[in-house]
Amino acid sequence: SRTPVTVTVTGAAGQIGYALLFRIGAGDMLGPDVPVRLRLLEIPQALKAAEGTAMELDDGAFPLLAGVDITHDARVAFDGTNIALLVGARPRGPGMERGDLLEANGGIFGPQGAAIEAAAADDVRVLVVGNPANTNALIAQRHAPSVPAGRFTAMTRLDHNRALSRVAGHLGVPVADVSRVAIWGNHSATQYPDLTHALVAGEPAAARLDRSWIEDDFIPGVAKRGAAIIEARGASSAASAASAVIDHVRDWTLGTAPGDWTSAALPSDGSYGVPEGLVCSFPVTAEGGEWRIVPGLDIDDFSRARIDASVAELIEERDAVAALGLI
Ligand code: NAX
């Protein structure tokens, strides 16, 4: 039997953790032949709740689950880890300014990046879910200089999946018929969900979509979907976010479908005019365990302005954390 893959989940006692851990245990993330050892990182006040979740994982009797360790020490949590899912973050509290939020999260993601640098396996792959996800990923990446920068990613797969589903619902087609949608920029309200290159059953989607639907319904509907979920459910997206984590890591490790792409935020190589190093969402493919930004797409004026606006926000966040000495 194979050596288990070590997967670290931070914020494991939170609501995304609760949905995510059982999907991992069931083998949905790495495939049905890959045993997994889980490491749960939580803050001391939440360790007891994490232990409760671990008891339920035991009760799942998952054949692929080789063990569950729980700790509040990042060095222990990331020791030998192959896949690090950074879900736990500091939420914005009442009266908290954006600078306070960035600083509080810098205090989490800087040390976690340093612990990954010091302790993780050579092949470590990192996905940041905790918000502000792109900039938290940038902070962690800068604290792990010997890990290839491209191993640090932030999650825009939930936004991508929301976009796929919204197009499919609008046109009355199965989700599987929709391909080549893209999320550009920041995982925030400035993100740009792009249908310019989208296909429906292999044909250009644009031919079947009104410009006004795209601009007045689709784009704001995807960008504000998180708020709509909170309004309806009384809590932020959790199971859908966990499902997007599963999709992101599965595609990263096993590869994207031929002819299609997905979306992920990763350090820019300068593609599409996005400043190098900025953790920005792009259309991407994965092969051999590495993401590649889809090259050579035509960017029209509307898309250019939307991408630039979201990138400008990422630059502001980067400059703010630099000014705070967090990177
Ligand atoms: P919860 O508040 O339910 O859980 C967060 C957990 O993180 C808590 O149990 C807390 O104790 C823990 N935590 C806090 N600081 C920690 C630290 N330093 N080390 C380890 N654990 C720590 O939030 P949940 O709904 O699970 O959401 C988690 C994060 O995902 C939030 O930042 C949220 O904004 C973000 N999201 C990101 C999404 C994305 O698409 N990128 C979508 C879903 C979600 O909103």
TrEMBL record:
* Residues covered by the Lactate/malate dehydrogenase C-terminal domain: 156-321
One Pfam short name: Ldh_1_N
Domain Lactate/malate dehydrogenase N-terminal per the UniProt entry, residue ranges? 6-146
**GO biological processes:** malate metabolic process; tricarboxylic acid cycle
Note whether NAD occurs among the keywords.
yes
Q: What's the EC number here?
A: 1.1.1.37
Q: Which residues form the active site?
A: H187 (proton acceptor)
Q: What domain of life does the native source organism fall in?
A: Bacteria
Q: Where does substrate bind?
A: R92, R98, N131, R162
One GO molecular function term?
L-malate dehydrogenase (NAD+) activity
**Which residues bind NAD(+) per the record?**
G11, A12, A13, G14, Q15, I16, G17, N105, Q112, V129, G130, N131
Family matches, as CDD domains: MDH_chloroplast-like
Reaction catalysed by this enzyme: (S)-malate + NAD(+) = oxaloacetate + NADH + H(+)
Which top EC class applies here? oxidoreductase
User: Entry's InterPro entries?
Assistant: L-lactate/malate_DH, Lactate/malate_DH_C, Lactate/malate_DH_N, Lactate_DH/Glyco_Ohase_4_C, Malate_DH_AS, Malate_DH_type2, NAD(P)-bd_dom_sf
Which keywords has UniProt assigned to this entry? Answer: NAD, Oxidoreductase, Tricarboxylic acid cycle
Protein family per UniProt: Belongs to the LDH/MDH superfamily. MDH type 2 family.
UniProt function note: Catalyzes the reversible oxidation of malate to oxaloacetate.
**HAMAP family assigned to the protein according to its UniProt record, in alphabetical order:** Malate_dehydrog_2
Which protein are we looking at?
Malate dehydrogenase
